[in-house]
């Protein structure tokens, strides 16, 4: 058995173990009752928000790639993004779909440019989520205990310093400096142009708004109405756990964070568990259109007549 297979099995085992543990300590029976009585209209709203998030993310990727010299149609970008999300949700690691997206879209621009477009697009999404978290702390940071608030502020501070670190790394000698200069230049072209920055900001804010709304809709579906301050301060923390490559699709980590943080908003741990499970299920359903991209396209037959 290969090392990669062992890692994937370990990630699946971690996800299962976390879910079983949470089921026992966060009143899984109550969470199941909340899921059984979930409002389908709110779940449908969450599904629509997640679909909109995928389309906006695909358009952001298309814009980023275009600024780096890689052209693609909007339809192809959306189809590729759906497929990448499907793979990310189905396989451990959460980045295999993005790697495939870069490989398939490389075209004549090459894999380096295609890979830069994918990485920059993903970083733009995470930056928007961190910006929402910063706004949430300004509005509702009091609901976080000091033991949690300080680490969160440290993470935000480090994230804010990363662009400066990249800028400074351009002066390094050798291959590292060349790589930093190349990536910094790609980021500037893809994000900071006069006609590009407003569009990037709009698309990134739209994607994060859809993500937060989808989670809030799942909370409402399972009986919890989160206030705006909690949506901005707590939900980004919950969603950020999904980027940790410890489980499949963030399962287990996301539920643990929701169960731990929901009591800060006056809800129960079981409500957090139910909300996160509902969100995970809606996310899985929302990426199913990615299967269409796997459907073989019949090739036109050549006309045998002279």
UniProtKB/TrEMBL annotation:
Transmembrane segments: 41-59, 148-169, 201-222, 228-248, 260-288
Entries under InterPro entries matching the protein: L-PG_synthase/AglD
Protein's membrane topology: Multi-pass membrane protein
Alphabetical UniProt keywords: Cell membrane, Membrane, Transmembrane, Transmembrane helix
Pfam families, alphabetized: LPG_synthase_TM (PF03706)
Source superkingdom: Bacteria
Location of the protein in the cell: Cell membrane
GO cellular component terms, semicolon-separated: plasma membrane
Main location: membrane
Protein's UniProt name: Uncharacterized membrane protein YbhN, UPF0104 family
